[in-house]
Amino acid sequence: MAVPLTRDSSVNSLQYIKSKEGSEYSLKFVLAGTDLSVANSLRRAMISEVPTLAIDQVHIIENTTCLNDEFIAHRLGLIPLTSDRVDNFQYSRDCSCIDEGHANCQKCAIKLELACTGTHMGDTTTVTAADFHSSDPDVVPVESYKNIPIVKMRKGQELTLICIAKKGTAQTHAKWSPTCCSVFRVEPDIELNQAKLQMLDSIGKQEWVNSCPTRVYGYDEVSGNVSVENPDRCTYCDECIKDGRMRIGYGEGGEYDDLVTIRPQENIFHFTVESTGAMRPEQIFLSSITCLRDKLTQMLNCLETPMH
């Protein structure tokens, strides 16, 4: 489904966002009609500027396990928490609460408690993220990661702690990043040199088509024609260009005399966003747009404010 935005005369193409495929934790879409700076700004915003909730403070009450306090605290901070309602919370630095540790403030903190004791004789008890008890039922470890092991205990060992989750961004620490992958690639413009391709026999055409590791091209044995079947799979590896030069040489026309010419289209970008589970990928993308809009609005306000 394509969502048209506007027409930019400097780009000479319709701006749109087209969703290719998506799931609970991943999203692929096409962003068109803009330039590299905007695409990269969105990518960076999704990685480090979209706020989420993560464990920020750990109060160890009792720990007789084989792992020290610092090791356990580090593991707890990296457990992704559901952050669909992150906009309902304030940053602790902006909150007006008088609680020094913000532990009891419902506006900027969520308390997660854990108390486990090893009970199995001759075997270990595994403490997982599912053993947490949250003060907010909407802020819990992500369902897919509730089996993350925190520590294993033998009988008689005990782990009791209180965690305080806060709102933050990955600019402060990577544990607040909502994505585990946020990348884009530029769409290729692939042009076949049919005149040169006709110089190859059927075996040569088939071998040249097979030289592409991602199977971008196809060969019709009936008509003997070579076509571009999967342009989205092109990774700019240039294997097809190298193979073609081995078969026909460089020629007098330089790169334009190759069997194929591949140029990046400078205004179409294919994004892949994978979420940690804290937020849905489409929510991450929309939040990144909001972050960029707020930053640009702030910049415009600064430029419009007269200097004294």
Give a summary of the structure in a few sentences:
Helices cover 22% and strands 33% of the residues. It contains 6 helices and 13 strands. The strands form 4 sheets. A 5-stranded antiparallel sheet has the order 1-2-3-13-10. The protein has a 4-stranded antiparallel sheet with strand order 4-9-5-7, with helices on one face.
Structural commentary:
It holds the Pfam family RNA_pol_A_bac. Belongs to the archaeal Rpo3/eukaryotic RPB3 RNA polymerase subunit family. It comes from Vannella robusta. This is DNA-directed RNA polymerase RpoA/D/Rpb3-type domain-containing protein. Keywords: DNA-directed RNA polymerase, Transcription. This protein has 308 residues and is of the alpha+beta class. The protein folds into three domains: 96 residues, RNA polymerase, RBP11-like subunit (Gyrase A, domain 2, 2-Layer Sandwich), CATH 3.30.1360; 126 residues, Beta Complex (RNA Polymerase Alpha Subunit, Chain A, domain 2); 65 residues, Alpha-Beta Plaits (2-Layer Sandwich), CATH 3.30.70. It is 22% helix and 33% strand. The chain has six helices and 13 strands. Strands 1-2-3-13-10 form a five-stranded antiparallel β-sheet. A four-stranded antiparallel β-sheet has the order 4-9-5-7, covered by helices on one side. β1 and β2 form a beta hairpin. α1 crosses α6. The longest helix is centred in the C-terminal third of the chain and has 24 residues. The two termini are 50 Å apart. The N terminus is likely disordered.
